[in-house]
């Protein structure tokens, strides 16, 4: 990660986490669909980000979000899990011919099919971990699964909309 | 030795992953214990400042409701004042309560800057802290009814564990006959709670009012909790299964009162000294 790239990612971090804190935090549909659009920061880090760095960044993002939701550790745990699974998912859905060098992850660069499956898989894992940890009781698991389903779709749609609006190649 | 380093290096991602998850697990366990002292939460200064700023914008849209609630509360207090003034005249000469006891509860008004109702463990952040005399374990009520209990404070902010928290047990009683039970939340609907341990021989109907009991030092007796909506009981159980419609609308909470019981410590020390002899339920 060179200097320019680092600067760019720092700006993304501020934008996504700030967006989550100020606006999206209050966005809840029917008490079951939440929007955790801040995960986009972890999803959109450069393709070749080292796993160790990825894990640490995930932890920091999670802890910061936790401090606003008063859920110390829950978002952090889910983010670290997502950060750990990211390289695996990238490897599993490698397109034919492999990846190009220094590729940036976005809808435009990676193609619709790749980006849709990549983001949806990781968002589902993140939300599943998040809501199951939050439930922490067998009687609340069905509700947690419902929340996972609705919130994953919500977050995912939000992520795709942001991709179409702001990440278009000119 | 070299092989150990090689091993650690090859699996560094996995090892770090496990370590970080353990760290997160420790944070979760440490902070979700509802009596436990928080060390990391939204009463932290910078977090609370951001929350306060965003809440200020949201407040403009709720002004109408806040006004209506305050007016309603004014009316209620006015009515109570009249009743008290009347009863005082009638009661002259009989029982005289200890003058210190009649003013044992002090109220501090605070503004809600963050609240949640959708998690199984909901908390609320308010904009008053230790500088205003707020300490952990104080009760919090709203004009509508019970809200919760303070669990963490910084100088200017505090975090409340709301009664919408699956580990919260609120000692309450049915107003008309005084039978005591516990109000617990099941983690699902933010308007409905369950009341347990009310014995079957007590007469209970849907529509009865539930208020806080005198068996705790956090709330004054008689603060509204809710109204019983459904009465049911499993045949083998000795206690009712009561569904309570909560009085407080947690989705539109704007101002709350923190209750400072100035004799709380005195009462608790005394209660710890004495072994309880018998409960006084009928």
Automatic annotation (TrEMBL), chain A:
The keyword Transmembrane helix applies. The keyword Membrane applies. It comes from the Bacteria. Keywords: Membrane, Transmembrane, Transmembrane helix. The chain crosses the membrane at residues 6-24, 36-60, 72-93, 114-133, 145-167. This is Rod shape-determining protein MreD. It comes from Xanthocytophaga flava. The lineage of its organism: Bacteria, Pseudomonadati, Bacteroidota, Cytophagia, Cytophagales.
Automatic annotation (TrEMBL), chain B:
Keywords: Cell shape, Membrane, Transmembrane, Transmembrane helix. The chain crosses the membrane at residues 6-29. It comes from the Bacteria. NCBIfam families: PRK13922.9-3. GO terms for cellular component: plasma membrane. It holds the Pfam family MreC. The keyword Disulfide bond does not apply. InterPro entries: Cell/Rod_1, Cell/Rod_MreC_2, MreC, MreC_beta-barrel_core. Belongs to the MreC family. This is Cell shape-determining protein MreC. The keyword Transmembrane applies. GO terms for biological process: regulation of cell shape. Residues 112-259 form the Rod shape-determining protein MreC beta-barrel core domain.
């Amino acid at each position: 990660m060179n200097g320019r790239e680092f600067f760019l990612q720092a700006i993304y971090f501020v934008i996504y986490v700030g967006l989550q804190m100020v606006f999206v935090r209050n966005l809840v549909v029917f008490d079951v669909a939440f929007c955790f659009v801040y995960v986009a920061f972890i999803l959109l880090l450069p393709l070749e980000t080292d796993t160790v760095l990825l894990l640490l960044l995930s932890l920091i993002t999670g802890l910061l979000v936790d401090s606003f939701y008063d859920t110390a550790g829950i978002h952090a745990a889910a983010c670290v899990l997502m950060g750990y699974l990211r390289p695996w998912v990238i490897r599993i859905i490698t397109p034919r011919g492999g990846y190009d060098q220094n590729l940036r992850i976005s809808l435009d660069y990676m193609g619709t099919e790749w980006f849709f499956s990549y983001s949806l898989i990781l968002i589902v894992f993140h939300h599943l971990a998040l809501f199951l940890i939050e439930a922490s009781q067998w009687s609340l698991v069905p509700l947690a699964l419902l929340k996972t389903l609705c919130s994953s779709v919500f977050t995912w749609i939000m992520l795709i909309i942001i991709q179409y609006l702001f990440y278009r190649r000119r | 030795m070299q092989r150990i380093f090689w091993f650690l290096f090859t699996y560094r991602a996995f090892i770090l992953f496990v370590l970080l998850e353990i760290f997160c697990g420790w944070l979760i366990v440490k902070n979700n214990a509802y009596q436990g002292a928080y060390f990391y939460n939204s009463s932290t200064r910078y977090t609370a400042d951001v929350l306060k700023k965003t809440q200020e914008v949201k407040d403009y849209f709720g002004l109408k409701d806040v006004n209506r609630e305050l007016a309603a509360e004014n009316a209620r207090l006015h009515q109570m004042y009249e009743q008290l003034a009347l009863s005082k005249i009638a009661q002259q000469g009989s029982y005289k309560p200890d003058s210190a006891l009649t003013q044992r509860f002090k109220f501090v008004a605070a503004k809600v800057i963050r609240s949640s109702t959708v998690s199984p463990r909901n908390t609320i952040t308010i904009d008053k802290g230790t500088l205003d005399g707020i300490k952990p374990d104080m009760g919090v009520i709203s004009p509508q009814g019970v809200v919760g209990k303070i669990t963490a404070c910084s100088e200017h902010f505090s975090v409340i564990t709301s009664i919408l928290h699956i580990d919260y047990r609120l000692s309450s009683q049915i107003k008309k006959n005084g039978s005591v039970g516990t109000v617990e939340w099941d983690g699902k609907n933010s308007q409905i709670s369950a009341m347990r341990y009310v014995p079957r021989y007590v007469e209970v109907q849907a529509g009865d009012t539930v208020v806080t009991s005198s068996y705790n030092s956090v709330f004054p007796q008689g603060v509204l909790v809710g109204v019983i909506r459904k009465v049911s009981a499993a045949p083998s159980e000795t206690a009712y299964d009561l569904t309570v419609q909560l009085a407080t609308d947690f989705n539109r909470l704007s101002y709350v009162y923190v209750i400072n019981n100035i004799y709380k410590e005195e009462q608790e020390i005394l209660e710890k000294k004495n072994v309880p002899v018998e409960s006084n339920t009928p």
